[in-house]
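Summary: Need help interpreting a holo structure output

Steps to reproduce:
1. Submit the protein chain below together with the SMILES for zinc ion.
2. Request a joint structure prediction with the ligand placed.
3. Inspect the structure token block that comes back.

Expected: a single structure record containing both the chain and the bound molecule.
Actual: see attached output.

Input attached:
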Amino acid sequence: MSAFRFSHTAIDTVALRAELANPESGGYTSFEGWVRNHNEGHQVRHLEYEAFEPLAVKEGERIVAEAIKRFGIERAACVHRVGDLAIGDMAVWVGATARHRDEAFRACRYIIDEVKHRVPIWKKEHYENGDTGWVNCERCAAPGEHELHDHALADSAGAQANGGATHVHAHASAGHGHSLAHQHDDHHHHNAEPLQAAPAPVDTPPAKRAELRPDYSRQTSLKEVGETGQAKLRNSRVLIIGCGGLGVPVIQYLAGAGVGKIGLVDGDTLEPSNLHRQTMYALADVGEHKAILAADRVRALNPDVDVRAYTIRLTADNASELVGEYDLVVDCTDNFSTKFLLNDVCVRLRRPAIFSSVYQYEGQLQVVRPDRDGACLRCVWPEATRDGLVGNCAEAGVLGPVPGVFGSLQALEALKTLLDLPGQLGNELLVLDLLTMSTARVRIKRAATCPDHASSRVVRALDTTVVTGTPSAEPLELSFDSLDAAEAAGLSVIDIREARELVETPTPSTKARHIPMAELLHGATPLATTGKHLLLCASGRRSLAATEELRSRGQKNVYSLRGGVANLRTSRSAPAGVASRSVT
Ligand SMILES: [Zn+2]
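--- attached output ---
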């Protein structure tokens, strides 16, 4: 039997129990989730469950395997219903057998909790008043619901004895006027029975809410859009990877515009340090999954949108299946491994993808259009191991509106593409410096060396930058015990860390120059082409990325110190301030 599966018909617990039976086990627990007749003060008539099955089955099987390993149990399985369910129907079943009861209980609880977190399943509630609303099943497993889980666990034990089970789904209902923070509060109130939604301080009466419909007149009145364009948007499916600084404006504008289906991928939970740039969220939401929070916002903004939250990380394992479900991809991540993965999948599946990266006050935008034989990310950036080069807000810092601007540009390019408007960004890289407000459009072409493509490689900038990729046989990284040793070997050391990092850990050399990475890569003054430069950062990650970048631009005499400052033999500390900022 497959350890995780979907069922389109009633779940047969007798047969499932028999599948798990084995002579080694002295304990068997099962959990049943039932469809309940109310949610959030709405009377629910029936439900529809929908799953993204190829991805869901893989993730579900992974969860069961984890539970077996983690708790050392004999067997476990989970079955989830899909399709139309009536009140009282069993929506999900989990069973676990173990030598002793305790492991069986814990494994059973682990499986149901993780399934609710990680498996892409959605339900559509049909209310007594005729309304419907899509809800994420993951919602009921949001962090902080320990009481609910305890309750569920207690019932899973009871389920065996008396056939009773608790309904595990406690959802914020879709499309109504509560604020996110309020939904969050509601959510906790679910834990207590009887279920009662806390009154919203200011709320639209239910009758009024039902009358409100999205109004697209401000965009359909554009002659390039019109009703035809609106219909195109309604029939479009857009996948947004990353619900952070770039993702927030993309999500809001595409939802507002009435894109028919929006998928949101983000495995992270909200942190207080996100909020200065991710202003769609609320402080009270800290700790919750961003994909779930964002999906709630989309439903509140535009109930026409069919929104799907995937609280997962994009991997080589799931990327093709996810991307295959959508027409257009918007990359709002801040790491290069994900960008290149997406690039490769989009080229293969011929899906257009809109990429953006932000670093401190500047960023860039590139639209990859494999459907029109356009250049891809690898045509421009031949080395894929570039994590740490740009967009790492945690290390480099960023002002909130910077990703806001680039996310807005991504949303704009997405709409232009979906509506097939003129002026779409083609084979070019748009680079904006928001401090100086300078703009560069760098022409790019499909590269002969690109693994995804095979044609001539010419990259020429419209401004003064000339980019010529030249793969080099020279090692990228060098190892030294101390900077003195590096200097003795004839290398001039350049510390590329940020100024505030130097305050905490000064450069352990009095001769080293300090040029922060952004300035080194994007500043006006190039490094001397004579001599050898050794780049230094905290861990060797940024310096390697910067070295690769400079090499790809033809600067051959640059190297990265492997392991960075952290790897240097503890040497005399230079007093703070000695490491002077030297930009010639
Ligand atoms: Zn390419």
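--- end attachment ---

Reviewer comment: The first helix runs from residue 13 to 20. Residues 139-201, 454-472, 571-584 have pLDDT under 50 and may be disordered.
Status: needs-info
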